[in-house]
Amino acid sequence: MTDLEPLFVRAARAAAEHRRAVPDRPVVTGVPAEEVRAAFAGPLPDGPTDPDGVLDRLLEAAPPGITGTVGPRFFGFVIGGALPAASAADILTIGWDQPAYNETLSPAAGAAERAAGSWAKELLGLPAGASAAFVTGAQAGNTVGLAIGRNEVLARAGWDVARDGLWSAPRVHVVAGEERHATVDRALRLLGMGTGSLHPVRADANGAIDVEDLATTLAGLEGRPTIVCLQAGNVNTGACDDFAAAIPVARAHDAWVHVDGAFGLWAAASPRHAHLTRGVGDADSWGADAHKWLNVPYDSGLAFCRDPEAHARAMSYTAAYLTGSGGTAHVLGDVTPESSRRARGFAVWAALLELGRDGVAALVDRSCAQARRMAERLEAGGATIRNEVVLNQVLVGFDEVADVDALVESVQQEGTCWVGATTWRGSRLIRVAVSNATTTDDDIDRSADAILAAARRLSG
Ligand SMILES: *Cc1c(COP(=O)(O)O)cnc(C)c1O
Fold it and tell me: Distance from the CA of 345 to the center of ligand 1, in angstroms?
C-alpha cells in the first residue's frame, strides 16, 4: 500500500503556501488564458504517471491561472474566502472520501450535517424543526426550495406532480421581485415551470420588493397555485426584502414562500444587522450559501424547509439495494438533489465551530463596516455611490469616466484588487462586494486608492 503522507503533505503545503502568498501578490497573474490552457492540454498519455509526477505537472500548470479569489482584496461577484479550519476539514473530507448519501454509509457525515444544520438554523433565525440540506450553493438551494414549493402548491390544488408531472397540471405562478437573482430564473427553467411563470414585482430604489405591488400582483392571481420568491441580499445593492411585511401578504394568498438568502441571510447572524432579515423565519423554504459569506471553501450551500416531510417528499428516493435510505431521518441524500456526493457538512461544521456565534456576527459586521469604509473613501475621492450601502455591497460611478468596463479592466490589470462591473437601473457601474474574513481595513484603503488612481488614468 502506497504511503500517501508525502504526497498529501506536499499538496497541503502547496495549498498553504498559496494562502500565505495570496495577500501580497497581484490578484490576477496576468498570464494569458491560452498559455494556461496549453499547460494543461496535450495528448492523453497511453501509460500512467506516478502521483508525484502528476502533482509536479499540476503545480507547474495551474498557478499561472490561479486568481487570488481567496485573498483579501477580491471584491468581484460575492466571493468569500476559506476559513482555516473549514479548509482543513475539506482536506480531511477528501482523505476520508465518504459518500454522504446516507448515515449507513457515513454516520459522521450525517452527524456533522445534523449539527451544522442546527447551528445554521439558529444563527439564521430559521425554525428549529426545519430540514437542512447541504447542497452545492445557493443556485441548488433555490432549486430545491422552489421544487418543494412547486410540489406543495400543486398538491393543494389536487395535483400530484411527483407522479403525474407537469403536462396537464394547473399552472404554477411565481411571484418575485424584478431585482431577483438570475438563478431563480434558471431554477424555474430546470423545474419545468419556465420563466413565463414569473410575475415580476416592482422593486424600490435599492432593489427590495415593493410590498404593495406584491399584494396587488397576488390579488390578481385570485388564489391560483402560487410561489412567492423573496430575497435577502440583492447581488448588486445588498438590499433585503421586508420579510415581516411581505410574508404575511403571501400567506394571506396561500402562497409558498421561498427566500433566496445566498449571502444576505447571514445578516441574521449579527445582532447589529438582523433587523434586515426580520421576519424571514416565517417563510417556507430558504436557500443560502456557505461558500460566500461564511467563508467555507467551494462548493457549499444550504437548502432549508419548514416542513421536513415536504422536503423529503420532493427530494428523496430509495432502491432495494440502498440500505438505510428513504427513512424518516431527512438528512444527507434524502434532501439533496444529488445521490452520491462529498461530505459537505464537515467544512460547514468546522467553519461554525471556528467562528462561534460571536465570530459569525463579527464577520458580518466587519464586512459591512468595510463596505461603508470603501464607499466613504471612494466618495471622498470623487466617486458617486449609487446604492444605499445597507450590507456588504457597494455600487460606484465616476461622472468623469465614460467607459466603466475599461475602468474595471484597468483596476483588474493593475492587480491591487479585483472589482467587477454591473448594470444597475440603466447605469454601468463598478460593483464592490466585501465578504472575505481576511480582509483588513488596510486592504480596503489600498483598494480604494487603486480604484481612484485608475479613475484618474481614465478620466476625461
Ligand atoms: C450568488 C447568489 C446566488 C447563487 O449562488 P451560488 O452559490 O453561486 O449557486 C443566488 N442568489 C443570490 C442573491 C446570490 O448572490
Answer: 19
- Phi and psi at residue 447, to the nearest 5°: -70, -45
Unique residue bearing C-alpha cell 435599492: 206
Q: Which of 444, 422, 440 is nearest to 431 (CA)?
A: 422
Of ligand 1's listed atoms, the one at least distance from the Cα of 235 is 15
Three-state secondary-structure class, residue 240: strand
Query: For the chain, which domains are there?
Result: 88-351 (3.40.640.10)
What pTM does this model have? 0.97
C-alpha to C-alpha distance for 85 and 90, rounded to whole angstroms? 9
* Tens-place pLDDT, residues 188-233: 999 999 999 999 999 999 999 999 999 999 999 999 999 999 999 9
Cell of 230: 423573496
Q: Are 129 and 359 in contact (CB under 8 A)?
A: no
Confirm or reject: Cβ of 293 under 6 Å from ligand 1. Answer: no
Residue whose CA is closest, atom 2 of ligand 1?
A: 262
**Hey, what's the cell of 52?**
508525484
Residue nearest to atom 12 of ligand 1 (CA): 262
Q: What number does the ligand 1 atom closest to the CA of 139 have?
A: 9
The residues facing 420 across adjacent strands are 431
Q: What is the CA radius of gyration of the chain?
A: 23
Closest listed residue to residue 145, CA positions, set 15, 21, 303, 14: 303
- 262 CA from centroid of ligand 1 (Å): 5
30 alpha carbon to ligand 1 midpoint, in Å? 27
Q: Look up residue 316 and give its three cell numbers.
A: 428523496
CA–CA distance, 268 with 140 (Å, rounded to integer):
21
Q: Which residue CA neighbors atom 15 of ligand 1 most closely?
A: 235
